Amino acid sequence: MKRREIEPGIHKDLKKTLSYAEYLGLDTILDSQRPLSEPEHHDELLFIIQHQTAELWFKLIIHELRAAIGHIREDDLRPCFKILARVKQVQQQLFSQWSVLETLTPSEYAQFRHVLGQASGFQSAQFREVEFVLGNKDSSYLVVFDHDPRLRGRLENALRAPSIYDEFLRYLHRAGHPVPAECVERDWSESYEQNPGVVQVFKAIYQDTGRHWEAYDMCEKLVDVEENFQLWRFRHLKTVERIIGFKRGTGGSSGVAFLRRALDFRLFPELIEVRTYLEEPGA
Predict the structure, then answer these.
(1) What is the pLDDT along the chain (283 residues), one digit of tens a residue?
(2) Would you say 85 and 184 are in contact if contact means Cβ atoms under 8 Å apart?
(3) Residue 78 class from Cβ within 10 Å (0-12 exposed, 13-18 middle, 19+ buried)?
(4) Rounded CA separation 206/227 (Å)
């Protein structure tokens, strides 16, 4: 077999320089999978890595969404297009990785599910922060984090701050679009309620995309994010249904029924509603 020789220029002595493992903190990351089943069940490692990987992606989504919000506040939408395109790709990674967990059969999961105790994805502070930043606000969820004041404080800040959709509507108002006043200043800790005036604003944007191209492009990027968020929710529901059927969740929820109710919530309602009212040429 033909061998690929190490090239002369490749660095081999890493004693006094930053290594790949050090830069990525691999000692910490790879030592963070600690199965609790005794004897250790083969598939528990998959379950742990699946959820740890999701948390890393959530961290990146939060990082990107907050950057986008910063640009919107500065009245510069252009960087948001790249940022939200990246968020969409991360969401697709999160969607696809459910297929890995689906290789876990019901009988296999049943062998170690008990070691989770009351631990549940419902308790993911980062996922809750993603929801808050996207606009799905609900202060009743904060009580789940009373045990950790740092996490609760971070979530309270996200709850009380304008979501990315709120900031976009405020941007449109500053740009001269007739966004209703009640959408520009309100109690940010409450989920946004659909407003017919905003539908009319988006109708004007969609019917003259040449004049409003940046706002139009931002609308479509937000639609991408919402669609992928809902697809992730649906895949989550189907994965849970496939593995545990209609059992209660480890965190105490009703399981599949609880997840199904979340599919009805719309993050950016007027961006879908406006499509109903767009006029077709010659109609």
Answers:
(1) 778 888 888 888 889 999 999 999 999 999 999 999 999 999 999 999 999 999 999 999 999 999 999 999 999 999 999 999 999 999 999 999 999 999 999 999 999 999 999 999 999 999 999 999 999 999 999 999 999 999 999 999 999 999 999 999 999 999 999 999 999 999 999 999 999 999 999 999 999 999 999 999 999 999 999 999 999 999 999 999 999 999 998 988 998 999 999 898 899 999 999 999 998 765 5
(2) no
(3) exposed
(4) 19
In this structure, what token pair is assigned to residue 106?
């019901």
* Cβ-proximal residues to 258 (8 Å cutoff; 6+ apart), any chain: 249
Q: Which two tokens stand for residue 244?
A: 């545990």
Please name which of 247, 14, 281, 276 lies closest in space to residue 109, comparing C-alpha atoms: 247
DSSP states of 114-179 as a string? GGGTT--GGG-HHHHHHHHHHT---GGGGGGGTT-HHHHHHHHHHHHS--HHHHHHHHHHHTT---
